Request: fold
Amino acid sequence: MILDDLDRRILRALQRDAAQPTTQLSAKLGLSQPATWRRIRRLQDAGVLAGRQIRLNAEKVGFGVTVFLGVKLATKGRVSLEDFERAIGAIPEVQTVDHVLGLYDYRLRVVARDLADFERVLRRRIMTLPGVGDVEANVLLSEERRPGPI
Reply:
């Protein structure tokens, strides 16, 4: 699908606030509400829009610590990547699991109530998974979200 300038404006506006009504969005774009809705529907049908999500403020719901973990599997031949991904995906504190190229095999985003809670999750849940080798933790100090290059 080829995106025109209007499609890109719609995408940028939805990145900022996906919950805004099409009447509000259409007023910002200078389009009618039906035309805006048709554009959004076309973007959904083409797979450009892959759903709408609400982003929770982890700290406000009791998870004040975010840690990025680099995980290197000890022996890639012993544990399949699918088995590791299934096991790590079952840990609710693990928010994202990215299979990456580089020093580590996986990059995880883990939330915890505090550092003691993170240590518990790391020691009892993550480090006990079969195949986990080296792990490097980076505690998130601050985060600035930027919209994508649309």
